[in-house]
Amino acid sequence: MAERKITGRHVFFGFAAAFGVIIGVNLVLAYSAVTTFPGLEVKNSYVASQEFNVRKAAQEGLGWHIEADHADGTLLLHITDDAGKPVEVASLEATVGRATHIFDDQTPDFHFDGQAYTAPVDLGDGNWNIRMKATSEDGTLFQQRVILHKE
């Protein structure tokens, strides 16, 4: 059997292949990161920071506590006051989705049943974020991100 020698051409092609794989993987990851980014939270962070403490104090003044649960294809959003009594809000909108991408985002149609807000939503296992905005009867805006872990 003839002895094979490594030449400069072999080394060049080896390095080119290795760097080609690295660059290809980086391009795929960069594309994936850009296409799954859900977007900005606020348009102008400086203006939002100036109003933050006022909004926070108004929201804490409501004394609301939020809990989420999912069972049998129904999403339950419990909004209670400091005494533990259910709160009926003037308006409620929410987006349910994963923290990592927007492909599974849903906007459920919640209805108040006297105890909690319910909506038919099909959720797979894992971590879910509920980004909710509720308006109290006096017009105070309440915003919160509620984490729901479903097994």
What features would you describe in this structure?
- This protein has 2 domains: 8-37; 63-150, Sandwich (Immunoglobulin-like).
- The chain contains 2 helices and 7 strands, in the order ααβββββββ.
- Strand 6 and strand 7 (141-150) form a beta hairpin.
- With 151 residues, the protein is of the alpha+beta class.
- The mean pLDDT is 89.
Walk me through the topology.
Elements: H1 8-36, H2 45-62, E1 65-71, E2 74-80, E3 91-97, E4 111-112, E5 117-120, E6 126-135, E7 141-150
Antiparallel strand pairs: 1-2, 2-5, 3-6, 4-5, 6-7
Number of domains: 2
> What integer is the average pLDDT?
89
Largest sheet: 4 strands, antiparallel
What is the CATH-assigned architecture of the largest domain? Sandwich
CATH class of the largest domain: Mainly Beta
Distance between the termini: 61 Å
Order of helices and strands: HHEEEEEEE
| Overall helicity | 25-40%
Strand content: 25-35%
What gyration radius follows from the Cα positions, in whole Å? 25 Å
Give the number of helices: 2
User: What general outline do the C-alpha atoms trace?
Assistant: elongated
Biggest β-sheet: strands ordered side by side in the sheet:
1-2-5-4
**CATH topology annotation of the largest domain:** Immunoglobulin-like
Q: What structural category arises from helix and sheet content?
A: alpha+beta
- The total beta strand count reads 7
Can you say what the CATH homologous superfamily of the largest domain is? Immunoglobulins
Ranges with pLDDT <50 over ≥5 residues? none
Transmembrane segments: 12-34
Protein name: FixH
InterPro entries: FixH, FixH_proteobacterial
Pfam families: FixH
